[in-house]
Amino acid sequence: MPLLTTHEEAVAAAADLAAALAPGAAERDRNGADVIPTEALGLLDRSGLLAITVPEEDGGPGLGPSTLAEVTRLIAAADPAVAQVPQAHYLLVDILAVHAGHDLRKRLFADVLAGRRIGNALAERGGKHAQDLRTRLAGGRLDGVKYYTTGALTSAWIAVSALGEDGRLVLAFVARDAAGVTVDTDWDVIGQRATISGTATFTDVPVAYSFDYTSAYEVPQQLGARAQLVHAAIEVGIAGGALADARAYLRDKARPSTEAVRAGAGKAVEDPHVMYRYGRLATRVRAAEALLKEAARTLDGIGRVPADAATAAEGSLAVAAAKAFGSEVAVEAGSELFALCGTSSAAAKYDLDRHWRNARTHSVHDPVDWKYHHLAAWELSDVQPPNHGQL
Questions:
Q1: What is the pTM of this model?
Q2: Is 166 exposed, middle or buried (0-12, 13-18, 19+ CB in 10 A)?
Q3: What is the set of domains in the chain, with CATH numbers?
């Protein structure tokens, strides 16, 4: 397994992976949960990219948020579903680095360095709110049902959130192939279909590794910001992928409209309205990329553990801006593509609608309106954002 020790090596590996993933992205989208994308995920697992954020003291390269954001953006431009699969993996590497004991770090980081992925089972359905969990860890045994388990189906380990016997939130790590673990392919959504983020069921599963997770958010933290940075990079990658496909279609396939011909345009790319719309969209995509880079640089300077609440707020707000704007631009790009390229671009054979479907599905992972709210609260009233895992 290659150990990617520099930013340049990681970005080059991501570019190579993106080039390998791009030709099959439309087919994986069409297949959805009917066909597990084992070949594509195997390329990811063997790329060395899973280990880029493992700390140096644990044998990894210890690369930072700027590297992670660029790696994710490049992969997402080719296939955002594959890019989302390791999102929780990178969060869990951060959690382990900050909160896990020596034995757990040694065990799991050795696997990560060997290309073995950590999946998540954090969310549930049916509760009154997102933190209304029914999964329980008692007597060293885990029982519960989870959904939105991105990456769990094909992972080596699964991190499961549960309530302990004292009512506090704990994080348990169980082997994917442990007795009592079942991960289903009941993932039926309009976008990000190849993530296969369906139901995971845990029935009397023995747990060897767990720790108190409530404490992670009782102090200033950057886990939420670092996790959201990857989500932001996925959105910005989707926007860039849609723009690239629009450019290719306009240059190679699109014909000018009758009105454009009457106005003197011999090609679709000479249509003045196409030129305006494309130029405007390209500018907004570049702006989203710039915000992403700025947010990543901010987190680079903070590190995994912020010095204080004000520093944590700085990181959270920088990422909030990038995520909110990037989500808007991704949805816009996925829709504007058709206004640019015309009726023929809507043919099912091109599957260009996947850009909008992926953006729309992923952008509602958590509400962007609250990100703008917290940005305004800080700018207008000096109110720091809340301390939680989605900001």
A1: 0.97
A2: exposed
A3: 7-217 (2.40.110.10), 223-381 (1.20.140.10)
